[in-house]
Amino acid sequence: MPVATPAVTTSPLRSATQLLFRSFPFPTEPGLRVFGNPDRTSPVFVTGNFDHTVRLVSRVLRDYDCYLLVAPTDGVNVWCASAGGHFGVDQVEAAIKLSGIDDLVDHHRLVLPRLTTPGVDPKEVRRRTGWRVVFGPIDIADLPTWLDESFPRLVSDRVTFPLRTRVEMGIGAGLWPAGLLGVPSLLIAGWKAGLAVMALSYVLSVLFAVVYPRLPTKPGLPQAIPLAAITGAIGFGAAAVLGQGLFGLIFWPVVMAGVGALVALDFPSWSPTDVCKQELLCFLYPATLAPPGFLPTVDEPACIAGCDICVKVCPKGALTLNMDSKAFLNDPDGCISCFACVQQCPVDAIS
Fold first, then answer.
1. PANTHER family this protein is in (predicted)?
2. What helix, strand, coil percent values describe the chain, rounded to 5?
């Protein structure tokens, strides 16, 4: 009989470090976690080996008799790992083999996070391992309700990016403009200027996170250009008021414009509501499954009438069923090019 996994403890220092360096991988040991007193009928959950995610999932699952397979996803969070090719069939297969779960349960059903739908092909998982995939809710906080009311049925869910999460992301996202512009500023203009640029990067990053969903322009360059112009003008004005010389009147507008542009360009890559749509991100990370600007196309003759799997897995609700009960992209602007509908279509009718 497997030994139960010890209670998860979180030190303030560990949490603060992972908050500040959220953009860096924080791997934990892959393999099997056991909660309560599971038997051969107990549910089997799967997640990635991003330490923060494993701790969040473990806090919920500790109230259940179940198993948790931690897949080797390079310490990357579930959404980024799935969209970037780090959480797919290979990783699910590895988790099954690493855990020895085949010997612990009689059923062959895995519960995966909903945000793995862009990267995990259930048909291929079943072909290679014999296990069937079920997708749970997007938010781990909704897992208890789903287990009590809907398990193992797939239900519609929408990805959100609430204020608290945006601020947390803004704190971590500020590292990039702070490092890319703060360090050169320190070398060029001295330590005071360098520290000022770093501090301003963090402040602007968090402020941008707060207002991000309410901006009238689309993420990416449409937001970066005006923000760069505004921050550059503020930099010039501040330098003039403080009586800076020619160097300061050139340095501060250029640096502040760079801070504004970097914050606006980088932040969408942190957003679960926009990440896959960013052409810059797809260029920097070619392992991303969907090509830049991808929009799903439905082969209506091949589509199964009444099948709504693609509608339910779409994290933005961009798909619906038409008058013939076939899948239809009703909201192209809402589509985030995540590839989930392509991966989850049981008859490969979406491309």
1. PHOTOSYSTEM I IRON-SULFUR CENTER (PTHR24960:SF79), PHOTOSYSTEM I IRON-SULFUR CENTER-RELATED (PTHR24960)
2. 50, 10, 40
Structure tokens at 27: 């791997």
252 vs 244: CA distance, rounded Å = 9
Phi, psi dihedral angles at 161 (to 5 degrees):
-140, 70
For the entire predicted model, the pTM comes to 0.87
Average pLDDT over residues 122-135: 96
**Residue whose C-alpha is closest to residue 222's, from 233, 209, 212:** 212
CA–CA dist 341, 316 (Å, integer): 11
Domain boundaries, the chain: 12-149, 163-270, 280-351
- What DSSP assignment string belongs to 50-82? BHHHHHHHHHHHTTSSEEEEEE--TT--HHHHH
CA distances from 66 to 55, 63, 138, 265, 299 (A): 15, 9, 19, 41, 40
SS3 of residue 112 by DSSP: strand
pLDDT tens-digit map of 281-325: 555 555 555 666 788 999 999 999 999 999 999 999 999 999 999
**Dihedral sign from CA coordinates of 145, 150, 153, 155:** negative
Look at residue 142 in the predicted model and tell me its pLDDT: 93
What confidence tens digit (pLDDT) does each residue in 213-237 have? 888 888 888 889 999 999 999 999 9
Count of other CB atoms within 10 angstroms of residue 10: 13
138 phi and psi, to 5 degrees?
Answer: -70, -50
CATH number of 280-351: 3.30.70.20
DSSP conformation class of 7: P
**CATH numeric code, 12-149:** 3.40.50.11600
CB neighbours (10 Å) of residue 347? 12
**Residues comprising the chain, all counted:** 351
20-69 pLDDT, tens digit each? 777 778 899 999 999 999 999 999 999 999 998 999 899 999 999 999 99
